[in-house]
Amino acid sequence: MKNNPEKIDINSGGVKEVLKIAFPLILSTSAFTLQMFVDRVFLMWYDRDAMSGAMLAGY
Predict the structure, then answer these.
(1) CA angle at residue 51 from 49 to 55, to 5 degrees?
(2) In this structure, are residues 40 and 55 in contact, taking their beta carbons and an 8 Å threshold?
(3) Rg for the chain (alpha carbons), in Å?
(4) Which of 19, 41, 43, 47 could be disulfide-bonded to 51 (CB atoms 3.0-4.6 Å)?
(5) 15 near 26, Cβ under 8 Å?
Protein backbone atom coordinates (compact mmCIF):
# COMPACT_ATOMS: atom_id res chain seq x y z
CA MET A 1 0.00 0.00 0.00
CA LYS A 2 1.41 3.39 -1.01
CA ASN A 3 1.36 6.47 1.19
CA ASN A 4 -0.94 9.15 -0.15
CA PRO A 5 0.78 12.58 0.13
CA GLU A 6 -2.61 14.32 0.06
CA LYS A 7 -3.91 12.33 3.02
CA ILE A 8 -4.71 14.56 5.98
CA ASP A 9 -3.18 13.56 9.31
CA ILE A 10 -6.06 13.78 11.78
CA ASN A 11 -3.64 13.54 14.71
CA SER A 12 -1.80 16.75 13.82
CA GLY A 13 -2.81 19.87 15.65
CA GLY A 14 -3.87 20.16 19.21
CA VAL A 15 -3.95 22.47 22.17
CA LYS A 16 -0.30 23.47 21.81
CA GLU A 17 -0.68 24.55 18.20
CA VAL A 18 -3.95 26.36 18.88
CA LEU A 19 -2.40 28.28 21.78
CA LYS A 20 0.62 29.14 19.63
CA ILE A 21 -1.71 30.93 17.24
CA ALA A 22 -4.21 32.24 19.79
CA PHE A 23 -1.81 33.55 22.45
CA PRO A 24 -0.91 36.81 20.63
CA LEU A 25 -4.61 37.46 20.08
CA ILE A 26 -5.33 36.79 23.75
CA LEU A 27 -2.58 39.23 24.76
CA SER A 28 -3.73 41.99 22.43
CA THR A 29 -7.37 41.65 23.49
CA SER A 30 -6.38 41.65 27.16
CA ALA A 31 -4.24 44.77 26.68
CA PHE A 32 -7.09 46.54 24.89
CA THR A 33 -9.54 45.61 27.65
CA LEU A 34 -7.16 46.85 30.33
CA GLN A 35 -6.63 50.11 28.43
CA MET A 36 -10.39 50.68 28.12
CA PHE A 37 -10.86 50.00 31.85
CA VAL A 38 -8.10 52.43 32.85
CA ASP A 39 -9.41 55.11 30.45
CA ARG A 40 -12.87 54.82 31.95
CA VAL A 41 -11.51 55.02 35.49
CA PHE A 42 -9.60 58.21 34.58
CA LEU A 43 -12.71 59.68 32.97
CA MET A 44 -14.72 58.80 36.06
CA TRP A 45 -12.19 60.64 38.23
CA TYR A 46 -12.34 63.64 35.89
CA ASP A 47 -16.09 63.90 35.45
CA ARG A 48 -18.95 61.42 35.55
CA ASP A 49 -20.64 63.14 32.61
CA ALA A 50 -17.48 62.75 30.50
CA MET A 51 -17.42 59.04 31.25
CA SER A 52 -21.11 58.71 30.42
CA GLY A 53 -20.57 60.52 27.12
CA ALA A 54 -17.65 58.27 26.23
CA MET A 55 -19.69 55.17 27.04
CA LEU A 56 -22.58 56.34 24.85
CA ALA A 57 -20.14 57.16 22.01
CA GLY A 58 -18.81 53.61 22.14
CA TYR A 59 -15.36 54.50 23.44
Answers:
(1) 115
(2) yes
(3) 23
(4) 43
(5) no
pLDDT, tens digit (0-9, with 9 covering 90-100), for 1-59: 566 667 766 667 788 888 889 999 999 999 999 999 999 899 999 988 888 888 888 76
- The amino acid at residue 21 is I
Minimal CA–CA distance to 43: which of 35, 51, 31?
51
Amino acid at 4: N
d(CA 10, CA 23): 23
pTM of the model: 0.63
